[in-house]
Amino acid sequence: MDLCQLCTQHDAMGGYLCPGCTKDTVAxxxxxxxxxxxxxxxxxxxxxxxxxxxxxxxxxxxxxxAEILDLRGPGGMVGVVEDWLSAVRLERGxxxxxxxxxxxxxLKAAVAGLIVNMPWIAVSWPQAxxxxxxxxxxxxxxxxxxxxxxDEVRGTRVGTCPAQFDDGGVCGAVLRLLPGEQVVTCSWCGxxxxxxxxxxxxxxxxxxxxxxxxx
Length: 215
Fold this sequence. Notes:
By secondary structure, the chain is mostly helical. The protein folds into two domains: 19-146, no CATH class; 156-214, no CATH class. It is built from six helices and four strands; from the N terminus they run αααααββββα. The strands form two sheets. A two-stranded antiparallel sheet has the order 1-2. A two-stranded antiparallel sheet has the order 3-4. Strand 3 (184-185) and strand 4 (192-193) form a beta hairpin. It is globular and about 60 Å long. The protein starts with 18 loop residues before the first helix and ends with a helix. The model is unreliable at 46-63 (pLDDT under 50).
């Protein structure tokens, strides 16, 4: 019996990754550039560390959050993805490209390269399970910063829906990313927010929050 290397369920296709895990891995790869961009707004430490009693005396806070700097640096998200693409191309006897440009541009290029090779990875590569597991862990690490902690029953609370109605009113319903889902969908108005829109979504949520607080 053939088992998927990621979910360990029976794979009728006889590959290393079942169709479901293959699709999920592609979705995780696809959202990495958006997560990379989204991490930027969390790079600075909370201003709370310099307020209150803890603000007097003691060491000064780091100018940036080190764990985010690690993810956004050359050896972080882009390093992991480029290393896996290099391994795939080596296994397939393909020419190794020389990484060039910005870290963000390199990440997008490496993600695109892996997605193109996913059909081969899922069916023919013995390292497919290890690869898919590391991409899943990388996505979770970045998502845990960009989004709040996950509620296993109700999902991740993202914020309030900024969708506007025809009369100019804002929806305002609570948005949640349900476990296993890759798209945030408002349960009240039905507006969907795929990973590519999450950075813009956060900007709109923050803007609405400030408006409510000022009212």
